[in-house]
Amino acid sequence: MDCSSVIARPVSLAGGALAEPLTRLPLATLYLTERCNSRCVSCDYWRHGRRDIDLDTVQRLLPGLASLGTQTVLVSGGEPLLHPHWAEIAALLRGSGIKLWLLTAGLALAKHAVDVARLFDQVTVSLDGSTASSYAAIRGLDAFEAVCAGIRAAVREGVPVGLRVTVQRGNAGELGEQVELARRLGVEGISFLAADIGHVEAFGRRGDPVDGVALRHQDLPTLAKALDALERDYADDFASGFIAESPAKLRRIYAHYAALLGLAEPPPVRCNAPDHSAVIEADGGLRPCFFIAGNSRLGDAGLAEGLNATAMRRLRADIRAARRPECRHCVCAKWFAS
């Protein structure tokens, strides 16, 4: 993807630096709903989520996505497959020539596998345990087999499926087992990232601390051993890209948790993701990324106008210049070269 046209370079204006207006938005994340049927220890959408995006809002989005040249929409939530009109929304977006990527917890995937395969170009399933017991401890439900059945159903329908594992206290020793599970399920690959616990307004949280997720001092050796074994025993999977990250990048997960414990400095963060993507929430709010609350909304004026409001331009400039404290412990920073 050529992102040279969407890099927002700060310019000095009264009131602080402003990023240049976005004229291209290759990737948009669309939250269909705040509701979720998982009970994850690291997320509170299931506690507080109530709102669904409405069809009129999606219709109003289409001209803005077209004018910004959006190529891909990541359909997320909450759990997007809980939206009563998720298939209609996907059809609207797909009818506009946009590629669709579904991010789901997978609980309803078996039921909807045929329509998901028809409407989406790729699917990522969040699967944070390699056994029924570790899954239940993290996800709060006895649904491991149901999710695995849904993944197999989607794979049979021919849509590319990948797994995403959030590495945390409950599964830090299971990295190799997660790769083995991915192989058994027939997916195209697996990726790992650390759990976000520092952004108290993200993922439906309301300012409460996140307990039971971050690694403790006594958990670090378990993760280190699992990382060593993964690098030693799965070299072919790293080389082929079946494991999305390099061994060096996975070591950042250890560094992230060590930093949270005060044992090291956080891994350096370099990110310009808000210069080429944005998050559209179920209530019409606009975020520069998953983790940082926005200060603009999708109004009658349209998507481009909302993203290029003065407050949003200043926020993007602050992120680009590493002035936002939330970025210091970011778990999925992304840099797109110009």
Describe this protein's structure.
The chain has twelve helices and nine strands. By secondary structure, it is of the alpha/beta class. Strands 6-5-4-3-2-1-7-8-9 form a nine-stranded mixed sheet. Helix 7 links the parallel strand 5 and strand 6.
Can you lay out the helices and strands and say which pair or pack?
Layout: E1 27-31, H1 45-48, H2 55-67, E2 72-76, H3 86-95, E3 99-104, H4 109-119, E4 122-126, H5 132-139, H6 144-156, E5 161-167, H7 175-185, E6 189-194, H8 220-233, H9 235-240, H10 247-260, E7 277-280, E8 285-287, E9 296-297, H11 303-307, H12 310-320
Category from helices, strands and their pairing: alpha/beta
Strand composition percent: 5-15%
- Give average pLDDT, whole number: 88
The major sheet is characterized as: 9 strands, mixed
Strand order of the largest sheet: 6-5-4-3-2-1-7-8-9
Any low-confidence stretches, pLDDT <50, length ≥5?
1-14
Work out the number of β strands.
9
End-to-end Cα distance: 10 Å
Q: Compute the number of helices.
A: 12
Please tell me what the overall shape is.
globular
Secondary-structure element series: EHHEHEHEHHEHEHHHEEEHH
Rg result:
20 Å
Fraction of helical residues: 25-40%
